[in-house]
Design brief:
By secondary structure, the protein is of the alpha/beta class. It has seven helices and twelve strands. The chain has two domains: 8-112, Elongation Factor Tu (Ef-tu), domain 3; 118-265, Nucleotide-binding domain of ferredoxin-NADP reductase (FNR) module (Rossmann fold, 3-Layer(aba) Sandwich), CATH 3.40.50.80.
Length: 267
Amino acid sequence: MNDLAHGMLLPGGRNGFAAPFTVERLVSIVRPAPTLVHFETTRPPDFRFTPGHYARLGLGPGDDIVWRPFSIASPVAGERLAFQLTRVPGGTFNGLFEALAPGDAIRLDRRAFGFLTLAQLAPGGTLWLIATGTGFAPFLSIVADPATWMRHDRVIVVHSVRQAAELATPGVVAAARTRADAQGRLEAVPVVTRESLAGALHARIGELARSGALEEAAGCRLEAGGSRVMLCGNPEMIRDMRAFARERGFEPGRRGVPGTLATEGYW
């Protein structure tokens, strides 16, 4: 896209301060489904984040930069940064991204943001990670974090998508098999709403929770006494599952006191 060097800090304002972003390089771009893109960028040595955080990525010429937030899907110690993008026809950022290829430049805000982290939840019990679409991206980072397995007895990942090709659960299960601390402690519940897939549930997450089908598939009760819940995804799922969780006694943290429920919407 341009010839800016990887990790280069651009000159800032009149006082000569460095710009609050670096220029990174796209390392890989994979399109597993018509509406989904997985991509990786280089990572500056001083970039720090907590699993569950999101980064701001920028595209565009000169000072006319279009910034968008993307949850970080890579392990906290990874050499690259991984992200997921939903392809939106006509979207400004999407239009710029579609013209890119590996090796092209992309701007990265030097800060990481967000509150969908393990620190928001009290340790112990079963950790439920419930997401729709690319809302699963931060959970990929959380599942890869050793702290997750130190804080919680078991992890249940629930991923709802329209098409089976968009599912992240197979990769999560495969990665868990390689981790000694995760073996036998992770359960994946795939949900596919617009096509039939053996072993997957086929209704909205809120409906599955209220019917008991979600708990049956996970082999675990979803209750505040022994569970912690993280939600990330579309507003409808967040609204439905937050209401369900409150009925079950889950509460978000407050004033620095960890809770049993943490949520983040992605549009």
